[in-house]
Amino acid sequence: MRRIAFASRPLDAPPRSSDITAASLLARLPSPAAKRWSHAPSIWLHGLRSHQSTVLMLLLIVSFIVYFCAADLKGIWNDDAVRLTIANGGIATANLEQRHPGNAKDVIKAIGTFACQPLYPLIVNRVLRLTHSYSVIPIVTANLLIFLFSAIGIYLLARRLLPTGPRLAAMILYLWNGFAMVHVLQVREYPLILCFLVYNTFFFYYLLDSSWDPPQAKSWFIAATHCLTASGAYFTTSWAPFFLWPQAVIALLAMRRRVFSGSVVLASLFVSGVSALPWLLRTPKNSALFTIWDKRTPSLGLLMARLYQGSEYLLIGSLVPSRSLLHFYCCALLLFLLTGLLVFTWRFFREGFEIQHIVLTIVGFLALQVAYFFFVEPLSTWPRYFIFYLPYVVLIIPLAFFRGLVFLSQPAARRALAYVIFICLASVAGLAQLGNNYQNPYVDHGPDFRVVYWYLISRVAPQDKIVVGAQTNLMAFNYYWPTPRQIQFRYDVVTADQIKAFPSIWTISYQDEESPAYRAYAEGIQRVGYQLRMTHRLSNVTVRRFQSNP
User: Residues 363-402: pLDDT tens digits?
Assistant: First the structure.
């Protein structure tokens, strides 16, 4: 009988394929807990999809509270004062308790040579008349409500272009944007501009949507609202035509398949443009709109610096130190933005008309800024104007992120995890931006004339004279000072007898303290017996006190 020999194997040797049993295979499968964790992002996004209205409402409420609590962190400056003065119907000449805002005709007349469209001052005038208050808080609250209403429009646009995760990211990028908060909390028209641009784009997309077949009455209503929002944009900012012409181009391209829809869009844009033509023609030749403000020589280095500064303000709210975490977040968003623009421009004729419109709007306005920079003046690339990009940027960044994940063929679970991470990063960075505005409320802000008022109100006697040389400085200071009759506009030297009637003369100077007119005035009052007793600088405003000799 032949003996069978069994080869011995070490105890720690790896198992052979023949040794793998069903039990060992089951042991290698992920545990139920691991399965739950791997699918948690997908489950969370599915729940989010079922409660989108609730999440949107919570975002709006939180944003309202955060913005409103910062409404009184700073006073007004020159830009705010110009709009407040126009909305009041002119410079106030009565005591604070007796000031009454004028009517619409006074507002239109007060615009004069200022580079200001009429719609926003008229709205501010209505707020002043309704509240009977000269506090900026009701005006800022109106700005905030307009901005939150525009955020609903961003949600409606994102619902057309993005799935649930990137859609929520777009809302957070818009609502919790530090630069948007800066503009909302100032007496300026930018929230109204964003609102008109957002809803005009929304109605434009509906007009060209081939899958949308509404009743005739509803389609004409959409066309009318598209025309009204375009007209509103014209009467709010002089920049409006540069954001509306891309719609005309897209409508012409769409007329190959949708002749009627494209014709309606072109007719709507034409009517809105004609409605704004009378206001444009009445603009005086000496309007500040035609003034050259930035007289520096254009250069490529200055252009690149301005473009980066504007992008940083747009994406994270302000300039930050180079090693800040917000700076790296800004670079990541900028990478997604540039990559998306390059890819969508390369695939321009293969994309939907919505993406074509967003890309054409961003690239077209950027080309305008660069051309104006070199051929007119560098003011076009001032960081403040980059806020116009916000509605389009907050859509194209999540869209580029979503398309990138699809291009990489990532499974659904990994895509969901990436969306959750993106949403969390956008939320943390957005709240950090809003927190920065609490720490430094003077982003894109000039001198705070409320600080000047607080300093002078306990020092200026009723018999003293206050002299202000620049018109915008007068508007800002006059907003706070309770007795405007104490204020003298312009550095006009009067006779010695008239001057000596005042125990002290206070001068308030911002950007004109070294002007020849101020120097002549200071020398003139010192020749008739006044002596410079005090010089104080606060919030970039120079305050000097000249006291008469006994």
Answer: 999 999 999 999 988 888 998 999 999 999 999 999 999 8
| Residue 44 Cα distances to 48, 51, 399, 412, 480, angstroms | 6, 11, 20, 13, 51
Q: Which of 174, 246, 226, 208 is nearest to 391 (CA)?
A: 174
Q: Using CA of residue 128, residue 130, residue 133, residue 137, what is the dihedral sign?
A: negative
How many other CB atoms are there within 10 angstroms of residue 277's CB atom? 10
Q: Which strand (E) or helix (H) includes residue 509?
A: strand 504-509
Q: What is the CA radius of gyration of the chain?
A: 30
3-class SS string, 347-414: CHHHCCHHHHHHHHHHHHHHHHHHHHHHHCCHHHHCHHHHHHHHHHHHHHHHHHHHHHHHHCCCCHHH
Q: How far is CA 181 from the centre of its chain?
A: 7
Task: Report the SS3 class of residue 112.
Answer: coil
Q: Name the nearest CA neighbour of 265 among 277, 244, 248.
A: 248
Tally Cβ neighbours within 10 Å of residue 509: 21
Residue 264 to residue 267: CA distance in whole angstroms: 5
What residue type is assigned to position 387 of the chain? I
Q: What is the pLDDT of residues 89-128, one digit of tens each?
A: 876 555 555 667 788 888 888 887 787 889 999 999 999 8
Q: What is the value of pTM for the model shown?
A: 0.88
> Cα dihedral sign for 107, 113, 117, 120?
negative
